[in-house]
């Protein structure tokens, strides 16, 4: 195992920080060797088989090309559950976990109906269905490939979610759709000019259709989602959004201009305005 550790450190040190390398090493040994953190410590002087060492070298080669470890292993963890991921979907982030946690802690209504716009891997509606008693959920996405992953994740997590292919910018929402207590979205919100400061493991591998918006209209999705919320939210329902930290005030202004009420900006664990909540009034 010491040989493998040495190879990992030598190959990854020019690219990754020490703390990242430590985390990647633990994950590699867990997935390839089936060892827990304690097992790694207890077996650090054991010899790794040639086959396992070759597998570890292949993983390192992909990491050197900036490929995310989640795509290499085809899975990630979100809110305590396992989800399949590939290059058709974004890798779920901590900020999205915080958004989901906000909804779960906010919501006391039994059997809420939920719509997730831009569902990707399906991590948001699946997690909400698993954590809100009696919840039912729909997930929309423009990408058939992403929806395939989302459906696989629903099976994996034993969660019933109705997924549909919808482009909210170009088409109407599906016919015979009901009204919702909760609408949630983590839409594209990174401006094209921000790509230059982003890490290659994002810009080279994650789906640009789920990430980027033009600099000329960075809030295009928020305007459309606000319009949909007015049509599809039940009176007293709530809209929850993950947002670009640069546009918190502007996003709140859009929601207010559309007639949504009780708008709240929320900071993430790093003190950045990354989430927003708005309500629909009780008038018909």
| Major beta-sheet overview | 7 strands, mixed
Order of helices and strands: HHHHHEEHEHEHEEEHEHEHEE
**SS elements, strand count:** 11
| CATH class descriptor of the largest domain | Alpha Beta
Number of helices: 11
Share of helical residues: 40-55%
Q: Tell me the radius of gyration.
A: 21 Å
- What is the total domain count? 2
What's the helix and strand layout?
Layout: H1 2-12, H2 18-33, H3 37-42, H4 50-64, H5 69-73, E1 75-78, E2 81-84, H6 94-106, E3 113-117, H7 123-131, E4 136-141, H8 144-156, E5 161-165, E6 180-185, E7 190-191, H9 200-203, E8 212-213, H10 220-232, E9 233-242, H11 248-257, E10 261-267, E11 273-279
Parallel strand pairs: 3-4, 3-6, 4-5, 6-9, 7-8
Antiparallel strand pairs: 1-2, 9-11, 10-11
Description:
This protein is of the alpha/beta class and 284 residues long. Helix content is 40%, strand content 20%. The chain contains eleven helices and eleven strands. The protein has helices spanning 2-12, 18-33, 37-42, 50-64, 69-73, 94-106, 123-131, 144-156, 200-203, 220-232, 248-257, and strands at residues 75-78, 81-84, 113-117, 136-141, 161-165, 180-185, 190-191, 212-213, 233-242, 261-267, 273-279. The strands form three sheets. Strands 5-4-3-6-9-11-10 form a seven-stranded mixed β-sheet, sandwiched between helices. A two-stranded antiparallel ribbon has the order 1-2. It has a two-stranded parallel sheet with strand order 7-8. The longest helix has 16 residues, at 18-33. The radius of gyration is 21 Å and the shape is elongated. The chain starts with a helix and ends in a 5-residue tail after the last strand. The mean pLDDT is 93.
């Amino acid at each position: 195992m010491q040989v493998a550790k040495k190879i990992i450190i030598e190959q990854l040190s020019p690219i990754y920080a020490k703390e990242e390398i430590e985390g990647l090493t633990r994950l590699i040994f867990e997935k390839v060797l089936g060892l827990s953190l304690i097992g790694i410590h207890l077996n650090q002087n054991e010899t790794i088989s040639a086959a396992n060492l070759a597998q570890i070298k292949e993983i390192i080669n992909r990491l050197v090309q900036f490929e995310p470890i989640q795509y290499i292993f085809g899975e990630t963890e979100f809110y305590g559950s396992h989800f399949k991921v590939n290059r058709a979907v974004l890798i779920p982030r901590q900020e999205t976990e915080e958004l989901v946690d906000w909804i779960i802690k906010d919501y006391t209504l039994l059997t809420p109906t939920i719509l997730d716009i831009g569902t990707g891997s399906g991590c948001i509606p699946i997690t909400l269905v698993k954590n809100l008693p009696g919840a039912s959920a729909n997930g929309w996405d423009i990408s058939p490939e992403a929806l395939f992953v989302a459906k696989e994740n629903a099976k994996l997590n034993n969660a019933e979610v109705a997924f549909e292919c919808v482009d909210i910018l170009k088409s109407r929402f599906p016919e015979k759709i009901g009204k919702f207590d909760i609408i949630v979205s983590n839409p594209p919100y990174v401006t094209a000019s921000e790509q230059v400061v982003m890490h290659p493991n994002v810009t080279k591998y994650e789906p640009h259709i789920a990430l980027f918006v033009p600099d000329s209209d960075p809030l295009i999705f928020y305007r459309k989602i606000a319009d949909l919320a007015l049509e599809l939210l039940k009176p007293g329902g709530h809209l929850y959004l993950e947002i670009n930290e640069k546009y918190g005030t502007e996003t709140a202004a859009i929601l207010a201009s559309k007639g949504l009420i009780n708008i709240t900006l929320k900071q993430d664990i790093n003190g950045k305005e990354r989430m927003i909540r708005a309500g629909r009034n009780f008038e018909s």
